[in-house]
Write a structure and sequence with these properties.
Largest interface: B-C, 86 and 83 residues
Helix content of chain B: 25-40%
Largest sheet of chain B: 5 strands, mixed
Strand order of the largest sheet of chain B: 3-2-1-5-8
Chains: A mainly alpha, B alpha+beta, C mainly alpha
Order of helices and strands of chain C: HHHHHHHHHHHHHHHHEHEEEHHHHHHH
Shape of chain C: globular
Number of strands of chain B: 12
Oligomer: heterotrimer
Amino acid sequence: MDHSLPHDNPTPAGVKRWQLWFSLFAGTFVWVLHLLTVYPLTSLTCEWDWFPSEIAGLHGLRFIQILITLVALAIVLQAGYFAFNIQRHLTPQNSRHLFMARLGLALNIIFAGLIAFAVVPILALPVCG
Amino acid sequence: MQTTQFLTPMPLPLQINPPYSLDPRGPGAAHIADLWWIMFFLGTAIFLLVAGLMFFGLFGRQDQSAPNEQQGLRWIMLGGIVMPAIVLLVVFGITIRSAVLNANEVGTGEITVEVVGHRWWWEVHYPEHSVVTANEIHLPVGVPVEFILRSNDVIHSFWVPQLGGKMDLIPGRQNTLILQADEAGIYRGECAEFCGLQHARMHFMVIAHTTEEFEQWIESQQAVAVQPQGELARRGEQVFISAGCVYCHTIDGLDDGAVDRSDSDLGPNLTHLASRTTIAAGTLENNRGNLSGWIANPHGIKPGVLMPATLLPGEDLQALVTYLETLQ
Amino acid sequence: MATTLSAQDNETLKQIWQPPAGILSFFTAVNHRTVGLRYIITGLTFFILAGIAALLMRLQLMFPENTFMNAELYNQFFTMHGTTMMFLFAVPIMEGVGIYLVPLMIGTRDMAFPRLNAFGYYVFLISGIVLWVSLLFGSAPDGGWFAYTPLTGPRYSPGIGTDFYATLLTFLELAALVAAVELAVTILKLRAPGMSFNRLPIFVWAILVMSFMIMFAMPSLITASAQLALDRTMGTQFFNPTNGGDPLLWQHLFWFFGHPEVYIIFVPALGIVSTVLPTFVGRPIVGYFYLVLSLVAIGIVSFGLWVHHMFTTGLPILGLSFFTIASMMIAIPSGIQIFSSLATIRLGKPVFKTPLLYVLGFIIIFVIGGITGVMVAAVPLDTQVHDTYFVVAHFHYVLIGGAVFPLFAGLYYWFPKFTGKMLNERLGPIGFWLTFIGFNVTFFTMHFTGFAGMPRRVYTYLPDLGWDMLNLISTLGSFVLAAGIGVFFIDLIFGLWRGKPAGDNPWGASTLEWATTSPPQPYNFASIPIVHSRDPLWDANGELETYAVEPYLGRRETIGTSVLDARPEQRVELPKPTITPFILALATAFTFISLMVNIVLVPIGGILIALSVVAWHWTDIEDHKAKEVKQEPEGALPSSAIISSKGRHPTFWWGILFLILIEAVVFASLIVSYFYLRAGAEEWPPELVGRPDLLLPTINTVILLLSSIPIYLADHGIQRGNQRRLKMGIVGSFILGAMFVVIKFIEYGNVNYAYGWTRTAYTSIVWMIILYHTVHVITLLIKTCVVGIWAFQERFDSERNAALQVNGLYWHFVVLIWLPLYATIYLSPYVLGSGS
């Protein structure tokens, strides 16, 4: 029986599958985790009076939130770099892999933006207003 | 008994500013109105651009040089990504700026007013002045006032469109809101969160005075109710006690034999009822006819209201209203 | 293998796929097109009902102090309008369009789980009918579609109306989830050979995104509505602030569902737009990649917006701002959608047929709704316009412009495929213009009404506040809008009655649904098409390559393909018509309504459900006995029921995987509820109850963890043909699982639990989590019993063991999910201390 269909698309050599999948999903997970960390931290700080002291000249909450944001950003950028790297190594024949890699790259750019912008309110707004 | 004549409520002929939030009379509402107008012009420009491109695409002359996918992708890049990104940056920036402006006012209130939401009226306290009133908030002009918002039953939302944004009153929590009126006048307030059957008739009035007038008002409110003069009014006082009104309504200075009013669905404090412009939470003008109509048949005006109808002989009703009208 | 079927095979195919006939056929049909059309027709019926409710509300608001309708009725009407439009119209109809079209567009013969599909429909139908019947008796829910607690709690809404809301909503969400799971599995596993993910039609992408959104969003609502129902009927304290409950918990859970909900409706609508538009401008959509990107991005980012419904609840402004970012950012993917449409229009040659008009109407209206959406995302502005008519205007622009206009475009576009008849091109534009003008008159005006200070959800208003004229205009506009929608329905009925015959592909479209007859044969495609590009019909020049599935087993079958590249890998069996889905739906409905009416009846409902499930699977087992003997021809694809090798899981393995996903979100919602209540509590656990004992639960946790080992060994063993290890493993796991349940019940006797779940919010949430998990373990034990019986009958071997694989998968899930629950309930009070 002939299984050779028009679109049999094995993973090309030099593409690590885990990197491809990581680049597709890491942005989403990191963004969700970031949101689910910085948002409750704000509420808890205001209700329970966490982080009363300053760290490195910043309000404790701000410091922690920026730290979390930077870590999150680093992971997302790494995922984006994986995707960027993969799509450089692909030819138009690997259309499905190319599609996934470009999707991963674009999603990571979006989530990097979403995460990075959190810095603005963290620095600009009063902690419990 | 001729209660029927009271069934049709008189409309409210008071000269009050319409609650138009783009006609701000306080800094809170003014910031927001500024934010709105910036967004309005940006938004209009974007809408015109999109509509223009659509009609251009539909009726414009076809590009003879074989239009290709690349040109389309350029549209998506510029129109779908770059333009919204720039606009959003601007909007985000002014939003944060406006939020900072609003937030900077927190803690600057010079007077504290506690507002407790009830189904379907507003209990108002001036803790610094020991004044209790209902559905009517008097403020001095030009002074930031800190509102402490609570609720004992369901969620309500406190909103005076001309003075600023709204804030919810949530049972089990306490919210604060700073408002300031820049001009003397009467501003309408509404309950903005659906709170049940009579959510529609849960209005209040914010009355901004000059500082002297405000102090006068506070003074008059601090006084206990005067002893009723005249036979009719004294009889009314007795009716107030015997007909059961006292079980929900407090009148300071009235000897009511220490009634237990610990039930949480209490009615408004009536000590200075006659000084208020409206009754039934901003629904009716405070006059004799409306007052008797309200007592005899509150459900005709505000169906489902928690105040029971009080069936009184006509004379008793007249006496009661006469008494209530003495509560200046 | 042949590429087309012989004439004899064709005859067999027709016989096998013969739809049921007779009166009972309404209750036995399982075909996706039948079910899809029923969804669409039922959805449109609810649309009309909710629309009439809206018109009556507009009549009441036409004049100040109008007495057309009293407050009681008005509140019921606006609640029913919102609830119906969201839950009984928008979501089901989008799912219905998906259920009808997805199998056709991906070139397969039916959904992955046709019986489940039919079950979902009956659930939807029953809950819709019961909800509307409650209105006839004047006891419809009246707390708004958002049902904010404590207004909807037992104290402030003592009537039965809100019980209808809380109970039926929980029930109805079953239908949405069922449809989502099987749409996703169908799209992942049943695509035509060659339809790799980068060739998926945009509409199918949209439905896939929608399905995953439903799977993540609805469980949160189910948790919330179950908590509300428990508060109302059992006396738990989740939302009662005087006993440690928190009204804002409801808002968080509700809007975590409620905001994605809007996009659940909007995403498939975008899919329709990007499908209809290319056909009427005669060129492929511009920016396929960007469209897919934006659908996926919208789907994900929409979960980061929910707090923007809570900007006025007094939460810290810093916390709110994080949600402003996401709320504004979502304008970029929406912008991509709009500019892709604009570019496609520009580069193509528009043909002004009715579907195109509705698409153009969508662009104009949706852009306005999107712009006001960015505005309300700004916290300060939102504090002015929140809960006013400005917001009413905004979301009607988004929902009617963003979903109803595309839906109408889609219905005009696919009507020939549904019925084989064309619609009238003279009535169509009249309907469109009336709808478009009426809509704008009604709702554009409401922006002003909002700024003029009129709050939402008021049954009447005072005169002379500047609202009178605005409301009058809105009311007049709403009747023009209604007239337009009326013309649309007349057109549909007229078209059904005497539309011209349509032919296979009347619009000259490019997607696979137009490759078959109108309406399609019961089996959709005699031979499965092979796909080489994104626009198969435009690129194939009428010569579609096909892949034959010979009906030699004499049963309903289609091809299962690999997830990413759609390589054929198995033959998937599809069920025959059967009445069991209807019976199961009745049994489930009985149980839910008992919850509301009389709790004593619930166990009876449980027994009825169990019996229906047995009946459901009974025929499968009998069928398999008969068919296992049949020889398969040389070189045929392996049949799905016996597949087990890695990466070729049968479709129902995927179904269970998504069930696990949904369950995981439910458990996560419960854990979030626990910590949310904890964060607001003064002392946690309350002094009265004290911290939970650790010894027994810890031993029990170890027992549960251990129970995973024998089941793993059993699965492993049978794959090597070791029957003895299979039997021992199953028995071992069963014993450990049963021990867990027994010890749990011993633990319940403990003093900590004696307070019952009605005492405080703490006991409510702890009991809910423990009970919910215990129910899972018991279900697992029952399932394992069944599988165990089969194991002792030696029905499994190294190839035929899919049921074991699935049972094992679910077992490990129930065990693993206990760990975070254990940490939450037992460890957190010790680790985090007992107060704020």
